[in-house]
Amino acid sequence: MQKAIKRLIDIILSLIVLVVLLPMWVTVAILIKATSEGPIFFLQDRPGQYKKIFKVYKFRTMKPGSEKMIKRQEVMKDDDRVTCIGKLLRRTKIDEIPQVLNVLKGEMSLVGPRPERIASLEEYNDEISKRLNMKPGMTGLAQVSGNIHLDLQDRYKHDVYYVEHYSLWLDIKIIFRTVGVVLFGEEKYIDK
């Protein structure tokens, strides 16, 4: 029953975000095209629930060709691969807004473990694989608990905790903390 309610909330809130923020989508698209070459959107294959592969949508924040990541190297605030408008989009999490399309398609949820790159699956053990038992989310427990300031294993622990202790109440708390992260930054939520 909770998962059916979660899906209904996902659809309703995603439609609201899509319609209400449409002027922002247009503004961001213009800024991306005006400040750097390349497409407006960044699409990448990611493993979803039960390892089902889907294309995640984001506003492009990096210079074309920068998506090739060095293993275990996060994109940090001062990364020179990030465009000038990309820094603002990443800091405010606006780059993630197009994922409401993934939510509407049923590939993602508003809250859940963040979808990782396919190559990361090679390092999963049985415990970490539990994070794939729920749809990935636009935000998640790890994202409101320090995110890039946590090492990968700690993020995985948060994801597994979320899957094992899922409730609508936990989703609501994560959504409210996400607002705090957007307003005040990830570093304010380390170890909270």
From TrEMBL:
Family affiliation: Belongs to the bacterial sugar transferase family.
One Pfam family named in its UniProt record: Bac_transf
Classification lineage: Bacteria, Bacillati, Bacillota, Clostridia, Lachnospirales
Keywords annotated in UniProt: Membrane, Transferase, Transmembrane, Transmembrane helix
Example of a GO MF term: phosphotransferase activity, for other substituted phosphate groups
Ranges that cross the membrane: 12-32
Domain Bacterial sugar transferase: 6-183
The protein's name: Sugar transferase
Lineage top rank: taxon: Bacteria
